[in-house]
Amino acid sequence: MVKRTLFLIAAVAATCAGHARAQDTTTAVRPGMTEADVRNRWGEPVAVRRVNDWTYLFYRNGLEQQWGFYDLVLLQNGQVVDAIVRAPEHLYLGQSSSPGDRVPEFTPPPPPRPDTAAGAVTGVRVTTPTMPSRPEF
Question: What class, spelled out in words, does domain 31-101 have in CATH?
Answer without folding.
Answer: alpha beta
